[in-house]
Each structure stands twice: as structure tokens, then as C-alpha cells.
Model the fold of this input.
Amino acid sequence: MATSQTIEFREPASRVAEGAKSLMPTPAPAPVGDDGDLVGEKMVLNMGPSHPSTHGVLRIVLELDGEIITKATPDVGYLHRGDEKIAENMTYTQFIPYTDRLDYLAPLANNVAYALAVEKLLGIEKQLPPRCQYIRVICCEMARISAHLLGLGAFAMDIGALTVFLHTFTEREKIYSLIERLTGARFTTSYTRIGGLSRDLPPGWADALRKFCDEVEVNFAESETLLTRNRIFVDRTRNIGIISRTDAIDYGLTGPNLRGSGVDYDVRKAHPYLVYGELDFEVPVGSVGDSYDRYLVRMEEMRQSVRLIRQCLAKLPGGDDNESKELISVPDGKITLPPKAKVLSSMEELIHQFMLVTQDINAPPGEVYFGAENPKGELGFYINSRGGGTPYRLKIRAPSFCNLSILPHVLPGHMMSDAVSILGSIDFVMGECDR
Amino acid sequence: MAALELAQQLQARFADVLTGPVEFRGEATLKLADAARVAEVCAFAKESLSFDLLLDISSIDNYGEDPRWTVVYELYGTGHGCHLRLKTDVSEEKSELPTVTYVWRGADWHEREIYDMMGVRFAGHPDLRRILMWDGYPYFPLRKDFPLAGKPTDLPEVAFTKPAPLEGGPFVTVAGGKDSIAREPRVRNPES
Done:
């Protein structure tokens, strides 16, 4: 079916066209395709896989009518490493470093989510020592602040506000210094163990974190002055990329993207894990579901995270330097490694150490799904066990994967330049999406 | 427990095909005997029991058993806050079950991923293509008979794969062995 469209030229363009008409010979009629459609009306544009606003390797095939997107086909998988296959071939403990590389902007939160999933399979999540639970909450919230700082900075930079990026990265660097002191690595933390943590807080670390909390709040205020009422930022985000409440649920969105659309669902509140049930925090919810709402939700979430960290530091059993020697791991030789001194002096501990290192924990047969509220949304692990130290099947429910699946629905109808704003506000990580 | 009650309601409605609920670690699991009715059961769970959020769809390869595939649906209701797991078996000869894309649109990518990784097809899916691997990739990598190191493939001007270079190295444990003795590098025949 042949269709023709009247294209309205804007003023300068029409003037150029008028001028060109007198110079150029009459153009040949446009070639007609096999199906009779006029060729050249729609343009197909490859966005990515290496584009600054795709934050990694997302490729979107956009079909454009002028500057309006008429169809968007995301193409994911450029970072596929087969994490699920790898997990089936190693023990539960050996897989912890691989979780660092899922959402590589919040490795600590992934470590905690994975450890909790395996602990749920073992049925020991209630036995975790309180100090371990508080430290894990601190880790999760630090990871959330760091991931949102990057998300917001990159989002603002993509639509032209470069200064915010420099502000947020200053604070993010401080978080990474703290994480390095805590875990020994900036990015690849691998901090948790099944049933506990790899090490306790280093001396003076809690005070450094308190100082950071005070500093970062000043930074939030600065970033907010740069963005929240910035006319250009508001114009680029308000009423752009509106995701309705029902669509958000239907496409399986979670995290700030779901809450930006007005759904009050946060795993930390709905099914409190660790000590979230004892802590006081609020869950911000958007009203319109546009890019601006998603920005506001993330901004407020960071403030709530600071609140949570302060409460945890105040309530931390054993205090900053753990003078009362509170445990940080489940005291079960069949789950966590015994102290090295005992391994060298006692037969029982030697056997436990040997069994754990060679065979790992002995998980019961069964299946569990555990979802944790990560910066990008609900990171879930479905573990199917047939007994022993290796999962029979481990499925990772990656929030970025589900969040991106809404793109073909939300992008059409927007201007090409709005795609950048929408992508920035959805805040995805391809390491997690492609696994 | 509310999730268990909802599972019982769903089981009572489809008593001829659903068995369970089985409870493990506080989660309710229902087993569907006839995979061809999965869309119908899911539609009822969404419309009448308000499981409005599809968290995930996973697939399991029960290699060497019959039926070979298990497809696992994780349902959640944002209103009542209950989680339910629905499982169904698919035989290797059939390797097909109806899509639930028309129940939850979010199922689209999950089903494409299962098709990509396991080779189980979803009848009625609007766009069943590979999603993580490229179009034209010949294998289904999450199947248990696919080696961890990968298989060499070559699709000219698109992509190629080579077996992982570490495979067979002197200190690499053999993946997937039953116990540590079988995985131990020194017991392995160097030629194998």
C-alpha cells in the first residue's frame, strides 16, 4: 500500500528548500519498493552498542520518521558471559566473585543478595548474627548511594548538565575509598560469605563513614540545586517517557522505575530481610511516571539510605571496633570456615575446613527464590538444588533486563533526543542485563 | 499463610491438572501437569487472584530424565504481597508450550531468553528470536549436554566462538564433576 506524507518544514529548512528548488533540476520520483511503499520515508538508525548514553553495550535499532521514533528494537547480549552456566559448574562459595560482575556499579549489594539467597536455601537466614546483618545493611545502602550517584551524574551529563557528574563523582570516589578499606578492593568486593562476612570493620572505619554521611548530604543539596529546578533539565525530563502504573507492573519493572510510576513496592518494606524491619525509613513514590519522577525518586532514596546507614551505625552490636567480640558469621563449622588457629590445633575444625574448601556447604535438595532490593530493582536468584555444594540450576532475575524490556513500548512517539533522557532515567547496567 | 491460601484457591479451580501446593522455606509451589494449559492457569491467577507482577520465568534441563524440561514461573501480587511458584514439565519431543506474553507483557523477553538458552519454544509468542546470543547461533548453551568451554562456531561476518582457552589447563578443575575427587585435576587423564 503506497502512502505519502506531507512533511512540514520548519522555517529555515523551508527557506533552504525554496532556494534549492531554483538551482536543482526537478528530482526524480522516489524509487518504489517491492511492497509499494515509498522508500526513504523512514530512517533506520543504529543507536549503540557503543554510544555514550547506552552506558555500556546496549544497541537499539530505532526507526525514525524525521526526528520522531516510530519503532524501537533493543538488542541486548553483547556482554553475555554465561554466568548461569558458570554457576552450575562450581560451588556456591566460588560463585560469589561472579556476582560482583552483575551490576558492577553496586557489587556489595549483589554479594549480599546472593549470600542471602543461598542462606535461604540452607534455612539459616534467621541465625545470622546481628552484627553481620547490620554490616550487610550498611553495605547495601552504600552500594545504593554509589549506584544512584553514578546513575544521576551520567543521566544529567547525557542531557547536557556536565557539572553534576563532577559533583557526584567526587562523593562516589569517597565511597570507593571506604569500600576499599572495608573489603580490600574498590570494585570486585566479594565481601560476603555464605553465612557471614569475609572480615569485620577495620579500625576507625565507622567514623570515616559517619564523616562521609555528613559530607554526602551537602553534596545531595548541591546536586539538587543544579537539577531539580533547572529549566533545561526539567524541560528535557518532565512528561518525557511516561510509564503508567499498569504498564510498569505488566512489564515487570522493579526498583526506582516502578516506584517512579506510583507503585509502592519496595522489597525492603514488603518483605523485610536482614534488619530492615527494625529500621526507620520511607519509600519515595512518584506521581506521573515520567523521567523527572524517576530522578526525584532516586534523589530521595539516597537521602533515605544515609538515614539507614546512620541508624545502623548507632545500633551496631559490638560498637565500631567490636570490643565485645560479636560474631560476624554463623558459628557452624559446616557452613563458615573455622578460625585458622583452631584449624591448626583441633581435629574437628581441620575436618570442617577440609570439607568446606573441597566440597563446600551441603545444601539440601529443594528450590528457593530470593529477591533483594538492589539499586536497579529486584535482583532475584532462583536456586534449584539437588543437594551438595553445587547448584543444579541458578537463574538470575536481573532487574535491568526486565526494566529494558519496556523500551519498545515507551520509546515510540518521542523525539530522538528524548531517547537519551529516557535511557538515562531508566538507569540500567548491561553487565546485569546480559549476565 | 496467605500465599498458601491463594495457592490452594488456584489449585481448587484447576484441580484436574494442578497438584500441590508444596511448601519449602516459606514458599508455595504448584505443579501443573499439562503444560498446554499454562496460559489459561496464568490468566486466571492474574485476573482473579491478582498476581499482577511476573517476576521471572526460569527453565531447568533435567538431562537424562523424562520429561526433559521444567519451566518455572515466579508470580507476585503487588496488592497482596504474596509470592507463588508455578512449575510445569515439557517433554523433549514436544519442547513447546503456550506463551504467557498476552497475560503479562513482561514475559516476552523471559520467553525469548529460555528459547535462546534451552531451545524450548513458546507457541504464539509475537517475536520468538534469540536474545542474548546472535541470530544464527546453532546451539543452546544452557543445556546440560553443552560443554562449559563452549563449542567452536563460525557465522561469517557476524560472530564466531572458540572453546575457552583455559579448558584443559593443568590447574583447571573439571566442571560439573560429582564430587571433589572427580573434579581434581591430577586424577584426570591429560589426553581427555
Observations:
- Chain B has a mean pLDDT of 81.
- The first strand of chain B starts at residue 18 and ends at 24.
